[in-house]
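QA checklist item 7 of 12: single-chain prediction sanity check.
[x] sequence parsed
[x] length recorded as 189
[x] structure emitted
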Amino acid sequence: MTLAHVDASAWAELEGAAADPQSAFRYLNLCSVDAGGRPQARMVVLRRVDVARRVLEIHTDVRSPKWQEISANPLVTLLGFGPQPGVQLRLQGSAELHGPASERAAEAWSLLPRSTRSTYMGGPPGDDIGERPAGEGKAADADGQAFFGVLIFRAETLDWFQLRHADNRRAIFAYDHLGALASSRWVNP
């Protein structure tokens, strides 16, 4: 397995995961830092991948803590693990946020099914809902769009790790600002 093959296969996995809800890499751990300097991690859904530019798209509620954290510090890490063939992908880079009034968010919103849009129609993430049953008191579809944002993550590095019975393998890849591979190397696991 060459470094070029590892890089290509990692990005092919991510690209496929954006379209396949059953893919292990469809759900990634997004790590940011809060105002108190504490690391924060949460699962996000991978929505789209641009392999050539090394860009991943994630949707989020603009009222969420992660939106505020990334507004203050756009440097984030995305982490995923695929049990077969035991590969961990750790991507580090920066995120740009596109709020509800942006063209990018409007386009992404227009492609969402109603069931997904409904997740943005309730109160802010983390607020108490009291005794109200789930689904009760939802706002109109347009109200949900007012809270919908798009996070565009641009990978600067990929740390690829393969867990094996023997001879674990690890490689580091760096990308330039256009997404081209700038360097790659095998490293000790």
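[x] summary fact logged: The chain has a mean pLDDT of 93.
[ ] second reviewer sign-off
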